[in-house]
Design goal:
With about 190 residues, the protein is mostly helical. The chain has one domain. The chain is about 65% helix and about 0% strand. It has ten helices and no strands. It starts with 12 loop residues before the first helix and ends in a 5-residue tail after the last helix. The protein binds zinc ion (ZN) (2 copies). One zinc ion (ZN) binds next to helix 3 and helix 5.
């Protein structure tokens, strides 16, 4: 699903912060949408299953034909980066690069009062990026991210309570599941 007002993938992080979901993930989605809308700008000789299906289903057909044809004609070049990634997906690689740039930008921006203030106020990062940020941020900024993640964990205790009720055969409390579905969807990876 597309966000209502699409952000440009190169938008500054602070623009993505106010959306109530992980800003890094938001910009990665924007980047992925941009690749699918205009694949000619992001040449690929190798695509993972997810991106091959996305190209088939979501890109302009003319573009998809062109890319698939070139893949059929030219087998991808084997990389030396290990057995599990003989043919790394060009789009996944581009996404990982953008992700690393955005993590670095997040770290730099945390030194600025305005950005830090927004992080405190809107305070949403997904678990994956939260953990990466804790590794790279100095204190006390890393502690801010720990607090954000701790508030995510409240959902876990709500889920455990709900589980106990369900096992007792109690009805109701389905709102908890809706809440968790919302959270899980907002955490969802780019290629999952
Ligand atoms: Zn991929
Ligand atoms: Zn994230």
């Amino acid at each position: 699903m597309r966000p209502q007002t699409a952000l440009a993938p190169e938008a500054p992080l602070i623009q993505a912060l106010a959306r109530g979901v992980c800003p890094i993930r938001t910009l990665m989605r924007a980047f992925q949408n941009a690749m699918l809308e205009a694949p000619y700008r992001y040449p690929a000789v190798s695509l993972c299953n997810f991106h091959a299906w996305s190209l088939a289903g979501a890109s302009p057909a003319v573009e998809a034909v062109r890319i698939f044809r070139s893949m059929l004609e030219e087998p991808p070049v084997r990389s030396n980066s290990g057995a599990s990634e003989l043919y790394p997906c060009n789009w996944c690689v581009a996404l990982r690069e953008q992700e690393n740039e955005k993590l670095a930008e997040f770290t730099r921006e945390m030194k600025r009062d305005k950005f830090r203030g927004w992080v405190i106020e809107y305070g949403t990062v997904c678990l994956f990026h939260g953990r990466r940020l804790i590794e790279i941020l100095p204190e006390p900024e890393a502690e801010l991210i720990r607090q954000i993640i701790a508030s995510n964990q409240k959902l876990e205790s709500q889920l455990s309570e709900f589980d106990v009720k369900v096992r007792r055969g109690e009805k109701g409390g389905g709102g908890v599941l809706g809440h968790i579905a919302e959270f899980v969807v907002s955490q969802r990876g780019i290629t999952r």
